[in-house]
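Dig into my protein:

:::
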Amino acid sequence: MIRATKLAMFALALAGGAVAFPAAVPQKQSRADVCPWCKNDPALMKAAGVLSHGPIPIGAKGSAALAAALPSGGWIFLETPHLRWAFSLGTEALEIADKKRVRSEMERLRKLLPTVPAETARLDPWLRLHLHAMKGEELYARFQKLLQVTDADFPESRRDEGPFMGNGRFLGEKDKFEVVIHSSRSSHQMFTTDFSGVSITDSFRWHFKDAHKLLVSIPAEDPDLKHDRWLFPHVAHNLSHAFLCAYKHFSYDPPVWLDEGLAHAIEKEIEPESVTTDGTEGAARETHAPSDWPEAVRKLVGRGKQKTLADLLHTHEFGDLDVDANLTAWSMVRFLIEEHPDALAKILGGVKGQLDAEGRPTGKDMPDLERKLFKETGGWTPASFDEDWRKWAAKKGG
């Protein structure tokens, strides 16, 4: 199954005035207040890497305000060392084809939380949330590995000495990353309109400038996103964007092609058939993406229809990336991940760590900076990088 979705871009400042939440609608809470798996027991929670089931300071007003204001069958919450989660989906009955994947995930969770069953035919909301939270921390570790950084590299605030690493402990931001998963699109729209001032239909990413944190809001109303097989890769795509934007602090946008190519790479490591596409805010895009991306790239290169690195360097908006550009960006990033991981880490650090003469972060002349970084890290000009990548892509695709 392919998930093709338009996602709104981040905003560094609020767009328009804040809109108040509607008056709270009485909801019939269908969920227990206590997690049936960790039982809100401090020892079990600590072993599972869970810091809290709430209240937590998620969104603009916190978990209590979120639960009171939004229509839902009941919200549950979870906080881990690097992420906060709000979840309003129900129980999922597993399809036979999905049981192998879930069994592997349950085995990993059982090592942290022994109360979890080895086998199950249904995932209740609490178990789904624990699995998402576990995979979220695994994703964070994966992203740090790609960046070649650890938590220790990020100070509480900017240091006068040493390399510039941003202004906080969470890849350069002061506060944690947040994911809000809604059971309905109307809930998602009410929630995001409150702090952004605009109504967004599809998945939405936002930077809270004063709090120095990034949030992802997902409307999981569509049939595919109701199932975790497709939901988590979609969440991971969005978190990849959030992580890269946060890296060394979100002071300016990273290069569009590199941001999107990396998000595709992260998503497809989790589910090869999952595809999320991004569009500029308010723009509608229809994307007919192939399901087998490595084969699609091999065919693209064989026909000579691939984009060049020079083409991608001058992409300014997500909506400017057509199918061929998305395939090329993804494959180029995969080439760097697999063949030149040190170069990729230095390129990502370079594009997110540029400072002006006064020592302030700046996104000025980004294509020129990228050309310099490719030269410094791999001895590549755009043309020579294209040649090395094409040889690899003709065999592997991605």
In short: Residues 102 and 180 are 22 Å apart (CA to CA). DSSP finds 13 helices and seven strands in the chain.
